[in-house]
């Protein structure tokens, strides 16, 4: 039966390092508060006018090289982001132009921290159906140009980093393939993590009053998000394993979305999963939303933490609310 495998991956983060101590120049915060509550020590932020598709291009070129392919071999580009270069058109169109492959299909995925898993599942479905052979999936974000650097925004601003990760999926009939996906969303909680403006539901979309109260910056009810995350992630992890007749003992590596080290530690404790088999890189990059899983997965692969044939479980949770899991035989 036709399926898809990850033929190559890439990731890219900007050079500029912003430490927790650097944050103190803008807001009332401390390394101790940030590290204790989130595990974050530093993050990467772009300098100047750099959009998500530019970071995505670096990651995509690396993924294509690792896969031994050229951009012209692609049938479809999927771009998962909550920080698109423009309101429209989508960053997938801009990335396609950057890669110099006019004509091929593109699609933006707007599912925040779960975006990369929604992207993998969409790519996998196109490939399984026989409609596409090679699909590029990118998660890319530039948060830094949209954050409130004042003390008002400190609960959110210290969390987010810029970066991109990419995977090239290709058709296979072999054993090493994506096994399954489980995807969820609950739009009743849309407003516990959102950017309110500019938006089509406001007329005009952006006013001075909105800017004055910071409606163009992300707002989060952190405790609420935390509570949902530690419930939904173990649930979806157990569910995807059970429906594939697998157990946690079969999983060689768990790659969770990097939102907060404390969330991931709590999830791992609840699951009773060995902590040494979990990937953490939030200390270096903060939360890069749609880019976090591909960056973490690619780093783990580069460090030799996954052997061919082993099972990798990815889990994500984020704004929407959205959450999900993907199982891969590497
Ligand atoms: O991928 C997107 C999904 N997002 C997440 O998964 C985030 C989930 N939530 C969290 O990770 C946590 O809720 C946070 C780390 C964001 C916040 O931790 P918390 O323990 O929920 O803190 P809090 O928001 O309740 O704030 C506690 C205190 C407040 O002060 P008072 O009211 O107790 O005086 C905040 O004003 O900490 C203060 N505070 C800060 N202090 C120093 C908030 N942000 C900061 C900061 N530095 N950056």
Verbal overview:
The chain is α/β, with parallel strands linked by helices and 330 residues long. It has two domains: 3-174, Thiolase/Chalcone synthase (Peroxisomal Thiolase, Chain A, domain 1), CATH 3.40.47; 179-282 and 289-329, Peroxisomal Thiolase, Chain A, domain 1. Helix content is 33%, strand content 24%. It is built from eleven helices and 13 strands. The strands form four sheets. The protein has a five-stranded mixed β-sheet, with helices on both faces. The protein has a four-stranded mixed β-sheet with strand order 8-13-12-11, sandwiched between helices. The chain has a two-stranded antiparallel sheet with strand order 2-3. Helix 3 crosses helix 4 (91-99) and helix 8 (222-243) packs parallel to helix 9. The protein starts with a strand and ends with a strand. The mean pLDDT is 97. It binds oxa(dethia)-CoA (UT7).
Considering the chains and any ligands shown, give keywords for the structure.
Peroxisomal Thiolase, Chain A, domain 1; alpha/beta
Please render the helix and strand layout as text.
Layout: E1 3-12, E2 17-19, H1 20-23, H2 31-38, E3 42-44, H3 52-67, E4 76-80, H4 91-99, E5 105-109, H5 115-128, E6 134-141, H6 154-157, E7 163-172, E8 178-185, E9 193-194, H7 208-212, E10 219-220, H8 222-243, E11 251-256, H9 261-271, H10 282-285, H11 292-302, E12 311-318, E13 322-329
Parallel strand pairs: 4-5, 4-6, 11-12
Antiparallel strand pairs: 1-7, 2-3, 6-7, 8-13, 9-10, 12-13
Helix pairs in contact: 3-4, 8-9
Bound molecules: oxa(dethia)-CoA.
Low-pLDDT segments, ≥5 res: none
Structural class: alpha/beta
Number of strands: 13
Please tally the helical runs, counting DSSP H or I stretches of 4 or more residues.
11
* Ligand roster: oxa(dethia)-CoA
Write down the domain tally: 2
SSE sequence, one letter per element: EEHHEHEHEHEHEEEHEHEHHHEE
Multimerization state:
single chain
Q: What percent of residues are in strands? A: 15-25%
Overall average pLDDT: 97
Task: Tell me the overall shape.
Answer: globular
Rounded to an integer in angstroms, the radius of gyration calculated over CA atoms is: 19 Å
Main β-sheet, in a few words? 5 strands, mixed
Give the strand order of the largest sheet, numbering strands 1, 2, ... along the chain: 1-7-6-4-5
> What is the correct CATH architecture of the largest domain?
3-Layer(aba) Sandwich
For the record, give the distance between the C-alpha atoms at the N and C termini, rounded to a whole number: 17 Å
Helix content: 25-40%
CATH H-level homologous superfamily name of the largest domain:
Thiolase/Chalcone synthase
